[in-house]
Amino acid sequence: MNNVVLVQVGFVDGSGWEGVYKTLTRNGLQCHRRPNPTMSLEDDVAYTKRALAAKDGPAILVGHSYGGAVITEAGNDPKVTGLVYITAFARIKVSLWPHS
Q1: Pairing verdict, β 30-32 and 59-65
Q2: CB–CB of 32/6 below 8 Å?
Q3: Disulfide engineering: 43 pairs with which of 30, 39, 70, 98, CB 3.0-4.6 Å?
Q4: pLDDT reported for residue 93
């Protein structure tokens, strides 16, 4: 695995990942860090899945802040081998069972 998709907080570009990006690429990893459209969670998840589709082979998703919710949803893509949350929100789905 040598692919990493960096998903940032909403309403900012990918420049916040600059130091991480440089370190990872210097060590031979292929990184993707374009900004999300931040139109809706669903749009951002679709955008992230398109980035995954463009990668050759499996990838790790890394999310910061709102990006954590995005990678939680996009994490079911078959190319995803792991999720990394950096001060991020995880989106948890809860199912409540009806009581008798």
Answers
A1: unpaired
A2: yes
A3: 39
A4: 59
Residue 8 has which token pair?
């940032």
Tell me the average confidence (pLDDT) per consecutive run of 10 residues in the chain, 100 residues long: 84 76 92 82 92 93 89 94 84 55
Closest CA to 61 of 42, 38, 88: 88
Residue 18, C-beta contacts closer than 8 angstroms, at least 6 positions apart: none
pLDDT, position 17 = 81
Contact status, residue 67 vs residue 88, Cβ threshold 8 Å: yes
State the Cα angle at 47 between 41 and 49, rounded to 5°. Answer: 105
